[in-house]
Design brief:
The structure holds two protein chains of two kinds. By secondary structure, chain A is an alpha+beta fold. Chain A folds into five domains: 69 residues, no CATH class; 190 residues, no CATH class; 241 residues, no CATH class; 175 residues, no CATH class; 206 residues, no CATH class. Chain A contains 27 helices and 27 strands. Chain B has four helices and three strands, in the order αβααββα. In chain B, α1 packs across α2 and α1 packs across α4. A three-stranded antiparallel sheet of chain B has the order 1-3-2. Chain B is α+β, with helices and mostly antiparallel strands. Chain B has one domain: Orthogonal Bundle (Arc Repressor Mutant, subunit A). Chain B is globular. The chains are: A alpha+beta, B alpha+beta.
Chain lengths: 909, 109
Amino acid sequence: MLSDLRIRFRSLFRRGRVEQELDDELRFHMEQQAGKYLRAGLSKEEAQRRVRLEFGGAEQVKEDCRDARGVSFLESLGHDLRYALRMLRKSPVFTAVVIITLALGIGANTAIFTLVNAVMLRSLPVHDPQQLVVAQWTAHHAGRHLGESSFGDCGSGPDSGTTVSGCALSYSFFQEIQNQKSVFSSVTAFAGTIPLNLSGNGTAVIAQGEIVSGSFFHTFGVNAALGRVFDSSDDQPGSHAVAVLNYAYWQRAFGGSPSAIGRTIRLNNLIFTIIGVADPGFTRLTPGKSVDLWIPIAQGSASGQPWVNTSDANNFWLVVVGRLLPGVSRAQAQSLLDTLFVNASTQGAKPIWIAADQPQLALLPAQEGLAGIRDMFGKPLLLLMATVGLVLLVACANVAGLTLARAAAREREMAVRLAVGAARRRILRQLLTESLLLSFLGAAFGVVLAWFGASGVEAFLSASSGMPIQLDVHLDWHVLLFGVAAAILTGIAFGLAPAFRGARTGVTAQLKGTTITAAAGRGRGRRFGLGSGLVVLQVAISMVVLTGAGLLLRTLDKLRSIDPGFDTRNLLLFTIDPELAGYKDAQILDLYGNVQKKIAALPGVTHVSYSSLALLDGGLWSGDMNLEGRADKHPFGVQMLSVGPDYFATMKIPLLQGRTLIASDAKGPKAAVVNHAFVEKFMAGRSPLGLHFGNGDSKPDTEIVGVVGDTHYADLSSPEAPTCFLLLNGGGATFEVRTAVAPSSLVAAVRDAVNGIDANIPVMYLRTQSDSIDRLLFSQRLLAQLFGIFGVLGLLLACIGLYGLLSYEVERRTREIGIRTALGAQRSAIWSMVVFHGIVLVAVGAFVGWGAAFGVTRLLTSMLYNVRPTDPLTFGLTAGLLLAVGILACSLPARRATRVDPMTALRCE
Amino acid sequence: MPPHIDLPQGTLDLLILRTLAVGPQHGWAISERVQQVSDEVLRIQQGSLYPALHRLERRGWIKARWGTSDNNRRAKYYELTKAGHKQLATEQDAWEALTAAVAQVLKAV
């Protein structure tokens, strides 16, 4: 159909020429015909008259020819668009309201879709990501003698009651995989991120470092933007210590200066040379994880982490990614590695599993296997996506309502067009063009809104998740395609019904000038029905979204009102790790003592202490314990926390029995304090004072000297568990500073105090205890806030819809209201007539929404705490709110109705 | 003037294609020729001739170029394309089959 296309394009782009040719062709024909009649003896006038008669309307023939050439579609699209623009310019208020409504609806959808895209859809920014596989193991029992962590690179995997899984492997097994040259072209392993104390570039800061094999950049096909990336020679024992910077980090911390290459920096006090900056496109591997710099595994000891250990086969710490050779299938490589893995893990000096545990190794596509935050955010994001979809539906219903009212006002225009011969199909198309134009304009603004919205959510995520979360929220073709699809769908959704109504206009009734009567007589029931239906739909959907928001807010409220067991207000936290700066055992405790004294002397500080971890801060340490005097000799697990002197006074945890830990306990016999839940669970309420315990398999040597009140430890929602407090004797620590003033006002003073003691110790994670708790609750907060925003948005749109419908009704019934007033109806009666109409719609909508919410809120169950998905209070309050706001929206048009002057109303006919 | 018969639906294309099979022609000549050959029985309405020509051109069965007529005027000449020849053969076969069948029925009953 090449000729077809050619002709269409020619007709479209060379219209003048084509029209001229058509004229010439027809004129030639008429002249020939006239010439024939002249030769037959007719007069010139007579000949021309006959030709014109025979030919019929020349314009009609031309139109038919244009149709035959198939130009009319594109050509009339141009007409339609020009006309649509003119119509929209003529009613700026309508246009503005519709575009804003659609921009909000489409913008909210695009914003959430941007996040879904960044977290779940976007492919790895590396060369040929579909060739990459990541190893994941599963077994029926947790491994023996096994240390394992993958730093959140993989999702939780298919963990269930009987299966455990992970994607970290030992260094020796990584080497074994690297030797499988028959299936992989390249294999890499990496671990992290690990906070590294970076000095030698201004003040000491913490940089997030990833420990990677020499083959890392080669496997991912990532090149250097500047300098060079690692090769295998950088990852040999004894090779020079080198580091590669992430592009964004280079920009941020080194000002993008090329002189950074070749510079030496100190990482945890060891000297490294910066050899290169990675390609700017290589922003991430695992969604959400941000890396500042990379160091080779051979230099891993710089991390100061005991588990960075290449000799222990029972230490699983490296995530392994391989690039398959062309033509090798995932299954082929998997069966090869599976055999190796089973052998390695069930044999050897300290086998991790027995054959009955059925350890297995699977290869997953890297895109799927490196899940990262996808696990945590996947479900909430999908729920949000569904919610904003509902909001868009409200927006569509709203705009449909507005367009419907406008279509009614334009019936006369449609009638005129029909009467002069426009096809109903053309009118339908004209109206659809108008709505699509509106929706595209709305989508254009929406995409801009979405960009701000998504950046806002990303900032919120980073600020409140406790770890730096990095998402690519920039617009890509996925997002733009989504925006265009949303625009087309909404344009059709809200434009279709009014367009059909417009095309169905009755010509005679309209042109006879009996519009008002016609509308009142014929259209009343039907239009009234559709418009009201749309308002009911909006109210119902708003009810569903608001109920969801209400349930999440109630959950947040319940979580916040939990008593954590200690005073969370006026508590400033910060973390230091003197080991990274080279401190050893006794030096560390001396340093902590100094820091404690120096900060306690600051004005506004009442108490200072420290602990290995902070409570309600995201961390948890648990261990095994064997206790004297128990019938059951098996060790049991308890929560543990190492604390400094004065800890319980600082935290305001009440002492129930005995005494708390003091500094001199470090030198005397080992002492510990347990909590009330410990006594309840293991002592059946008897006093534990004087009893000794060991750490699971050692002799009981630590004496319990006191009992304190219960506190929440890892999170707020799980019940208080048995906890044992020991005296801290080394390692990094988090300081707790109890203040009499606002804790944030002491941030600078605290930092100066620590720097004054040793400037090489960076103060990490300065935060208040309330910040920490907010971070723990951040997914609930995020969901509650976004649901709240969308709920209010939906409610607002529904109110505009209700207001619009009633205003239109009042206007349409001006005559009727005038007659009623003339006949003596009270203003209050008119007022309640209009308001009653609105209330009925809101009530019906609320009732429908109530039923729908009842059905769908159970999807939220896993995100609720102590609130049932059918919580009657939430349902009641939401319905109440809807009714109250609904009455407000009705009262304005109702007031206008009471102002109708009967004389004017009757005269306007 | 003998009474003329209105063209049955769909036969106009066939007549145009057949006429052009002889050689390139402009619109007016096509209608004249059909009228002549059919002894003035068949008359093509100008109102339908030109839309039909443009339709056939779009389908790729005929193509158009500007040339000079016998009386030295610029005229648009149409000629059959390869696809047009094929289409003519198909349509002609179909037409002959149809008329033969109709004739048979008319004779038999």
